[in-house]
Amino acid sequence: MADVTLTNVNKIYGEGPSAVHAVQDLNLKIDDGEFVALLGPSGCGKTSTLRMIVGLESISSGSVHFDDRNVSALEPQDRNVAMAFETYALYPNFTVEQNLAFPLEVRGFSADEQKKRAQNVAELLRITDLLDAYPPALSGGQQQRVSLGRALIREPDVFILDEVMSHLDAHLKFQMLFDLKRLHRELGRTMIYVTHDQVEALALSDRVAVMSNARLQQVGDRNTLYNAPANVFVADFIGEPPTNFFQAQAVESDGDLRLAVDDAKFTLHLSEKTRAAVKAHGGARFIAGIRPQNLTPATASDATSGQTTATLSAKVSINEYLGERSILTAHRGPVSFRALAPPETRSAPDEIVELAYDPANVMVFDPETEDLVH
Amino acid sequence: MAVTTANSEAQLQQTSTVADRWRAVRYLFLAFMALWLLFTLFPLYFMVITAFKSAAETNLTVPTFWPNEWFPQNFAGVFAEATNFNALVDSFIIATANTALALFLGSLAGYAFARFPKQAGGENLAFWILSNRMFPPVAILVPMFFLFDNTPWGTDSHLSLIILYLVFNLPLATWLMMVFFRDAPREIEEAAYLDGWTPMKAFVRVTLPLVLPGMISVAMLCWIFAWNEYLFANLFVGTDVRTYTIVIPTFTHGSQTLWNLQMAFSLIAMIPPVTMFILLRRYMVRGLSLGVVKG
Amino acid sequence: MARLEVEGICKGWDFPVIDDLSFSVEEGEFFVIVGPSGIGKTTLLRLISGLETPDQGVVRVGGRDMTALPPYRRRIAMTFESYALYPHMTVYENIASPLRARKAATSEIDERVRSVANLLRIEQLLQRKPGEVSGGQKQRTALGRTLVADPEVFLLDEPISHLDAKIRHELRTQFHALEDLRRVATVYVTHDYAEALSLGDRIGVMGAGGQLEQVGAPRDLFERPDNIAVARHMGQPTINVIAARLKRRDGGMRVDAAEGTLSFRIDDSHAPLFERYTKDDVTVGLRPQFLRPVKDGQTAADTIEAEVDIFEPLGASGIMLAKSGGVRLTALTDPEAHYDAGDRVTLAVSTDRFHFFDAVTGRNLAGSA
After folding, report:
1. Domain end marker among A232, A261, A277
2. Distance (Å) from the C-alpha of residue B205 to the closest C-alpha of chain C?
3. What CATH architecture applies to the domain C4-224?
């Protein structure tokens, strides 16, 4: 067991003008026993980061520590990390048990020990009945478990999972999410999960580290990333359906500061705190963001519940019924945005809907730096 | 603190011994490669310098490794007899025609084996065709001679060798083209059918471009085999048609072998395949099917 | 412009994949076939397009029997799950391919390709090769190739399943907006029920038997599934299915879980269902969103006590696996909530949202939608 500390880690591929800065000044501390997800679009540097932690890639500058031990210069086999890959990479001519025990066999463990540990891991992953089967006879989900088991059997300090679910079907994926969560709880080991899928990242991890453009953008739990995204990228990348963004101009009338959305003839109300932050920040142009979850058809109960809501009317262009919910795509002039509605909503295209939002949920970003103002 | 320092020093030392070991392995490897290069390049080198020696110098008991006197006249000498140049032309005609035929038939057969394995006779038949290439050519030398002797065009003709070499090149072309066609995603062809292309047009427009790099490699292999073939050519042709391979041994003076002329002619004969290889090299790099499938 | 009819179609290799399947799609209708992967959805599209020949049955377009025609003689356009773009041709040439096949004039080709590319917002990519564009752009190119063909039937095979969530939202919106797709008969195949609900005018749920388990409008399928298989396939997380026993008493009915001590009141609105149902065993279905933790200070009519087993915040909502009276249940929570394993929670149950299925046949007691 170990905590993992990355200090000013850089990775540069190549030299001279063609050099690619794949990871830039990365600082991240992962606590002992913590489950952290490394999330980002492809090419953001998450895989390079992971490979540097494992030792498959040299570190251009900076250091990686496991507890107090500087492992930056060590070979992967000397670091006591284990990694499960996206592709199962099982040996088809070995049984599941032989596949599981293989990492022990190459390290010279006794046959008894191999058998015992394979049995334990199989129990943990609920594949004991498959021990004598050969990989080609297994389903995708089962193969993925065996592959996880092979990584786990060495009892590593740090356990790394690289996009392990991207090949699985939606239903299998769901099952696997629960299994992994349980696994982490029972093992209590430090785990790092690399993925481009935010649902997986949010579901599994204690904290999510969001990367983009070779840089770490923000580290936090679900509520931090949702309610206080560090910048436009995080606000856009995290959340489903995607966040609505508006180019807007600050306007003040009767001492009330609002954001007037370009070309759309409507203004967004802001909470008192946001108004103060916007004033303190200065400038007139901003990017406003509001999540579809926070923009819902106004109901009679909103008016009576006395919540501080603001409303905005818009014309429906699409009403997507999705079973558990509906997504309304609506527009005001040329500006189009999405709102979330209960599945009973019957609004047809071209109907005018009244959408309600809490001004506290309007996010404001600086248009130049794209950083969160409030 | 002291502990940490000691640790990192130990690590440093460990790392440096690992590095030393790797350096030693690298030098050994380089030395081996140098020896190997010497071994493979020396014959080539000796051929080149021999082509520039005088006849007398080639027959010294102690061979020279650099010509005492340069003798570029050798290259004119080999064409003293005008028919020698025709031998190169004959070889070219035979190799090119044979390659074209092998590719044409091999592509169709390979496509059939790849796409309609059941109707085409299955994996066994495909393998049997390939196995035709595995027996020693000498075994069929005499029967083939009698067979071709009874054809209207006889043995001493372009056509006899063009067809005969198919015995060796067609199985190779069929097998390799089958492998390339199998790798070409079937759905791309099906997409073409749905676009409204008939199977033949879809084959030409979509499938052939996909296997083109492979096809060029196969063409090179077939052409070089036919260009260099000696055994059958020596027995079959010689009067009306002469390939360059059977001309080379004719450079003698009485009982003396004229090594310089033989090597000069060999050097000239190397020019077409080497040029072709250089020109077509970039087409032989596979990778056209990148990005066909999802992702 | 024509109506598509598939009648009694069968196809099998070592075992039957499609078994006596029939449906029809009106001109201008968007018909979605949804089902788990590997169940034969793609085979069905290949049968309609002519890439496979049915063992039995007929495919008709506009009343004409197409079954014996090769694909290039049918006016049917299809996108492949793998996109199947021509790697050696530019995006432009890929899209132009159907027009070139029918020997259209160069000026017409240019005009059509550019207008389709403009519609799909890929006009700046026309000179690139498929290997040089992103997954979403490949999908648009493949779609462009089918749109340009002006066919009588569109077949779309999992067109957006392999793309990121955000691009999926965007392309789904695009499918709604593409009028070409709304003019002819379209069959769209997917394993994602949300995509099906969003896009389909009607939906067919394909089951393991190679037949359509249920055909209907999106709301009917989700709110009134014909059987347990359909209910299970529609909805994420999967519907809770509890084997239970009916208790008929004066003053109301109850269901008790077959194993454990869990028990629910049956809502009065459901009472008519049991007038003709004589068995004691019944299968209860309850979607996770109708099983929610009661917030402090709130009350609910029907509640159960449960212990949290696993909690996962998914972003838009939280998913809780909990155990109540020995029965494992999935419940949905607020996105911002947090629970730890072992927490005791009170769950509100919307008893009016129960589905009841025949314990033996698995059919919905409410009958067909």
Report:
1. A232
2. 10
3. 3-Layer(aba) Sandwich (3.40)
B13 in contact with A at a CB cutoff of 8 Å?
no
**B285: exposed, middle or buried (Cβ count in 10 Å: 0-12, 13-18, 19+):** exposed
| ipTM of predicted assembly, 2 dp | 0.88
Instruction: Let me know: does C320 contact C339? Beta carbons within 8 Å.
Output: yes
For residue range C321-364, what is the model confidence (pLDDT) as tens digits? 999 998 999 999 988 888 988 999 999 999 999 999 999 999 99
Task: Tell me the sheet residues that pair with A218.
Answer: A210
Give yes or no for a contact between C24 and C3, defined as CB atoms under 8 angstroms apart: yes
- Topology given in CATH for the domain delimited by C240-358: OB fold (Dihydrolipoamide Acetyltransferase, E2P) (2.40.50)
Q: CB atoms < 10 A from the CB of C65, how many?
A: 12
Partners of C222 on chain A (C-beta within 8 Å) are 321, 323, 343
In tens, the pLDDT along C244-295 reads 999 887 777 889 999 888 999 888 888 888 888 888 899 999 999 999 999 8
- Interchain contact A73–B (C-beta under 8 A): yes
A80 phi-psi bin (left φ>0, alpha ψ -120 to 50, beta other): left
Neighbors of chain C with 3 or more C-beta pairs under 8 Å: A, B
Task: Count Cα neighbours of B129 within 13 Å in the Cβ-side half-sphere.
Answer: 22
Pairwise CA distance, residues C107 & B174, whole Å: 41
By C-alpha distance, the chain A residue nearest C237 is A174
Q: Which domains does chain B have, with CATH numbers?
A: 81-284 (1.10.3720.10)
3-state secondary structure of B110: helix
Higher local confidence (pLDDT), C38 or C145: C145
Q: What pLDDT shows up at residue B214? A: 87
- CA–CA separation, A39 vs A44, rounded Å? 9
Quick check: A198 contacting C, CB < 8 Å? yes
Q: Which residue range is the domain that position A171 belongs to?
A: 4-232
Tell me which residue of C71, C150, C157 sits closest to C111, measured CA to CA: C150
